[in-house]
Each structure stands twice: as C-alpha cells, then as structure tokens.
Amino acid sequence: MLQRDTSQAMSPKEREEFEQEKEFALMQSEHSIRIKELELEVAKIEARWSVLFKIPLLIIKLPVLMLFAIAYIVAVARGKEPSKDFWDFIGK
Fold first, then answer.
1. Banded model confidence at residue 48, pLDDT cuts 50, 70, 90
2. Based on the structure, what is the number of domains in the chain?
3. What's the predicted TM-score (pTM) here?
C-alpha cells in the first residue's frame, strides 16, 4: 500500500527518471561484475604464460652460467680473483 502511494505521488517525469537511474545502476553493477570476471581471466592467462616463459629463460640462462663458472674456475686456477665488474655482471 505504501509503495503504491509513493508511486502515485511521483509525477510521470519523476517516475521515468527514477526508472532510468535504477536501470543505470543495474547496468553499472553488471558491467563491474563482468570487468572483475575478465580481470580474473587475464590473471589466469598471465600466470600460465609466466610459467611457460620461465622454462626457456632457464634453458638459455643455464649454459651462460656454466660459462661464467668455467671462467671463474680458470681465474682461480691461475691464482687471480675475478674483478668486481665480473661479479657485477653476474649479479644483473
């Protein structure tokens, strides 16, 4: 009964504005839900790709590290300590 009284108390223009605001709020909430779903999907895809990229990087990095290890062994065998630049380069 109260709802009927308030709806009758509104002019047709006010009623139309109220319905438009209600519809706009509903569309915004649906849009934000869809955006959250898409962000979650993007996060899942990024997680998969990051795992796939780690393997080739490891395959490339391992031989390079082995070369550095050989260079270090040669330097120690000659009785020389590798320079600071050598350690800085490895650390990067």
1. confident
2. 1
3. 0.45
